[in-house]
Amino acid sequence: MNKPPLVIGLHASPPAWLKRLLILLPFVLVIVVYLWASDARLAENPADKILPSLSQMGDAIQRMAFAPDRRTGDYLLWQDTLASLTRIVIGVGSALLVAILLGLNIGLFVGFRSVLLAFITMIAMVPPLAILPILFIAFGVDEFGKVALIFIGTFPIMTRDIYLSVIKVPSEQLVKSLTMGASSMALTYRIILPQVLPRAIDSLRLCLGAAWLFLIASEAIAATEGLGYRIFLMRRYLAMDVIIPYVAWITFLGFTLDFLLSLLNRKMFSWYAESKK
After folding, report:
1. Parent domain of 13
2. Which residue among 104, 131, 227, 236 is least crowded, i.e. fewest CB within 10 A of its CB?
């Protein structure tokens, strides 16, 4: 008689079909619990807005995504998505570039480390949402203030992560490269940079959740379009049939960005993916 597959424990090795089932299990449980709770509330009060039914949310999605707004003529979901994605891509993209530049130089050169490491560590300890009013006062409530919040909230963490990756490079590799005639620039950007780039992408993936938080917060306070703006606008009317699909859409966008970055890492730096197995 075959033993059931081991699921829990250090030596667990469930088959592929069981792994897929286990991945789906928590999602199915959440959906089942929601549907049960929604059905119970709507049975007691059909006008309840807290837990809308799937049909109510479907109508809201149709209205927001596939019907032009009566006032502006825009398709609001896609307009909000474009505005939010533009802000977050610019914010985390610029943060990654600055983090790579600073992290490499801080990790390799003692002078840079002495000047910048303590300062960047201090910046990383500042709660970004606490300085949101300062950013809006200093830079206004236009796009720059929102992008600046995402940048300030993510670049110190990525910089420190890349710095820690650089200092793990064996010193023998540095000495050997310099002995063979490599210049400081060549050592930094042709030898060390390719080794830390996959870790930089992983660091970006880890910062995406925080970046979305800063984006939603800034859009909620001062914006005329964006996913966060729309959620907080609908909050005034208890329009959970719009809010819940918007939250689910943000989650899907975040998951998609994370998946694409992971795929990029595997395709461009296969050796890095192998080293983590």
Report:
1. 1-50
2. 236
